[in-house]
């Protein structure tokens, strides 16, 4: 077992040149949110922005656009047509695939919902996007219905399941996933060729080439709805800035946990929120020497 340290961040994050601009710092498409799940879109995009992405672009149902846009002023928005349940309609697939291919990376799944429309969106992005993807939350619940879709990818993929999602992806009972976290994550990574981030105490990062890391940062105050959305945004942000899939995952997990530890110092584990974690990302970077 190899435990991560600050060097995973230093190897993934580059010093910004004086002549940097938003174009050189990467663009990230976030396909997230649905009616009743605007917060997931907000936290993932805010996590991405605080982690340093040059340009965040949020593709979301038109019904939640006003809420999200009032909360995040720094993003570009694509308010999309939706189905009767307030989820992004599959009629948007051609646009989403095109925009994904134009972006440095794409995040899919936070608060997306699971239905025929979102299945079509997730599967189409996996099969057709030529730039890297991060799949989280409901994107993983879609993939769980047909995991073999991952073998049809055209670009690197990072998945970020919690143990329950990993159970659905593998068919293994959740207690077994938790009992053999490193083996389960590595087996999935190698079977499907995706970087696998199995979240939890001691998050496991497994590469298709057999490398496995275990993260030491983080605390129980992060066990709150929304923390995973923040991690997904952070992971996709580092990926879009140019790091490899494995390096992006390892760096994001370490930074995410460190930001959580700083938030716990400031607010206490009981009262800290995922939004506190987002606000502590700059302090986490400083502790890493940036």
UniProtKB/TrEMBL annotation:
HAMAP family tied to this protein: NADHX_dehydratase
Binding site for AMP: 199-203, 228
UniProt GO MF annotations: ADP-dependent NAD(P)H-hydrate dehydratase activity; ATP binding; NAD(P)HX epimerase activity
Gene that this polypeptide is encoded by: nnr_2
Name used for this protein in its record: ADP-dependent (S)-NAD(P)H-hydrate dehydratase
GO annotation, biological process: metabolite repair; nicotinamide nucleotide metabolic process
Catalysed reaction equations from the record: (6S)-NADPHX + ADP = AMP + phosphate + NADPH + H(+); (6S)-NADHX + ADP = AMP + phosphate + NADH + H(+)
Annotated NCBIfam families: yjeF_cterm (TIGR00196)
EC number of this enzyme: 4.2.1.136
């Amino acid at each position: 077992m190899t435990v991560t340290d600050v060097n995973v961040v230093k190897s993934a994050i580059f010093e910004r040149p004086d002549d940097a601009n938003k174009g050189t710092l990467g663009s990230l498409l976030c396909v997230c949110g649905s009616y009743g799940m605007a917060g997931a879109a907000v936290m993932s995009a805010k996590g991405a922005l605080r982690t340093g992405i040059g340009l965040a672009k949020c593709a979301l149902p038109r019904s939640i656009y006003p809420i999200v846009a009032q909360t995040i002023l720094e993003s570009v928005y694509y308010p999309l047509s939706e189905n009767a349940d307030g989820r992004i309609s599959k009629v948007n697939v051609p646009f989403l695939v095109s925009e994904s291919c134009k972006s440095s990376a794409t995040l899919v799944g936070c608060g997306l919902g699971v239905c025929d429309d979102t299945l079509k969106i997730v599967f189409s992005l996996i099969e057709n996007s030529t730039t890297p993807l991060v799949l989280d939350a409901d994107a993983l619940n879609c993939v769980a219905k047909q995991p073999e879709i991952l073998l049809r990818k055209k670009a690197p993929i990072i998945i970020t399941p919690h143990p329950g999602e990993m159970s659905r992806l593998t068919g293994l009972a959740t207690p077994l996933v938790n009992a053999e976290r490193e083996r389960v994550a590595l087996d999935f990574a190698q079977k499907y060729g995706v970087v696998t981030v199995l979240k939890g105490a001691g998050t496991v990062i497994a590469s298709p080439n057999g490398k496995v890391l275990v993260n030491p940062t983080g605390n129980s105050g992060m066990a709150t709805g929304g923390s995973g959305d923040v991690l997904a945004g952070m992971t996709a942000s580092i990926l879009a800035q140019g790091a490899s899939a494995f390096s992006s995952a390892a760096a994001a997990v370490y930074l995410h946990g460190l930001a959580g530890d700083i938030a716990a110092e400031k607010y206490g584990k009981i009262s800290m929120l995922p939004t506190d974690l987002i606000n502590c990302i700059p302090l986490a970077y400083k502790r890493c020497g940036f």
